[in-house]
């Protein structure tokens, strides 16, 4: 029989190599893991998620700031085009049977100045960019320019200035190496819709000046525009602006028709030629609406 102390001594002596080996192995593992962690800690850090997001948002902020500044400049150019195009329209309204050539020559020179000074600035600002993003910023000025150009063209030739001819006049303003800024169909039609209001005022003025044939020509021209647009507008996307202008256009056409009709039906009751107040021809007291 073995004695208990001897047994314990034998067990301790027999297990001691295993325990020592286990402790040694564990120690080595700790050393290896510590060395690995130290090497990871010493390794230079590359880009992190936080710095990447910060750089990305800095780029986005820079792009939006630049776009907003460009939009402000485009809005300013659009206002200048609108103001000076209106001056051209006012110049055309000074026309009479005695000064037609003089007035139109001055109006056409002013219109050319609008193109060279203000449209050219807008073209340079938008060249090389996705100008559809800024269409809302410059659309009012372009519409007013279309209205002035088509108004001059009608008074000169009695015909409509089409979009291709209008854009052909803008090509010299653009760099041939870059996509040119061209007036789009939607802005052209919106400007054309505004034209009937000016034609209505012109027709009333021509009736008061005794130019009845010219007034009837304006009436036919305005009806043709309205009739053609009634076919086009339902096919347009996002045509809410156009629908509003179509209602105003109809009122202008009706006023021209009523004025011309009154001349023929009731002309014998009044001394119409040379009258400075043709408002009675319309059956309404105020012709400025």
Automatic annotation (TrEMBL):
Q: Which cellular component terms (GO) are annotated to the entry?
A: cytoplasm; nucleus
Record keyword Cytoplasm present: yes
Location(s), subcellular: Cytoplasm; Nucleus
Which Pfam families does the UniProt entry name for this protein?
Answer: Translin (PF01997)
Which CDD domains does its entry note?
Answer: TRAX
Signal peptide positions (record): none
* Single annotated GO MF: sequence-specific DNA binding
Q: Which PANTHER family match?
A: TRANSLIN AND TRANSLIN ASSOCIATED PROTEIN X
What is this protein's record name?
A: Translin-associated protein X
Q: Which organism is it from?
A: Citrus sinensis
